[in-house]
Design brief:
This protein has 160 residues and is an all-alpha fold. The protein has one domain. It has 6 helices and no strands. It starts with a helix and ends with a helix.
Length: 160
């Protein structure tokens, strides 16, 4: 369970660092939202989806127990594989420099998943009174993440 707590802390630290350094990069010479997002998108997706995928595949039983979910589900494995695919594709898009539109595409797919995952966690907390840390924080962390991405995404859209 210590590794899972480390993953939780590391995700928050990595995403915070992505925002901090992303905004530093974005404002180096005027404002360049494309450079900012080029840095932030893979870091955010790998930190959240990549670690969650690893968690689900290799520490599935412990992760489910920690979240108050059932253990041993094939859906958990499928979700973990999907999360890992987001992380891998975010890295491929970045390394192969496919451009901001490809980067935004993987970001939107990830955010779509994360948004509805937040709703799922909130509903689980309300319906089943599952007040585990992940169920309580997910909706709020998701909204904070989206709020932090709105400005650079909006600014990039203005360049299209």
């Amino acid at each position: 369970m210590k590794i899972l707590k480390f993953f939780d802390i590391f995700r928050i630290v990595a995403v915070s660092a992505a925002f901090y350094f992303g905004y530093q990069i974005g404002f180096e010479k005027g404002y360049d939202p494309e450079s900012q997002l080029h840095f932030m998108i893979p870091v955010i997706i790998v930190a959240i989806a990549g670690l969650s995928g690893i968690e689900g595949l290799f520490f599935g039983k412990q992760a489910a127990t920690l979240k108050g979910y059932e253990t041993g589900s094939n859906y958990q494995k499928q979700s973990a594989i999907a999360l890992l695919s987001y992380a891998v594709i975010a890295l491929v898009v970045t390394v192969l420099n496919w451009g901001i539109k490809a980067e935004l595409t993987i970001l939107f797919v990830f955010i779509f998943f994360f948004f509805f995952s937040g709703i799922n966690h909130a509903m689980d907390a309300i319906k089943r009174k599952n007040y585990k840390w992940q169920n309580i924080n997910r909706p709020f962390i998701t909204l904070i993440l989206i709020a932090g991405l709105i400005y650079p995404v909006y600014k990039v859209f203005q360049t299209f």
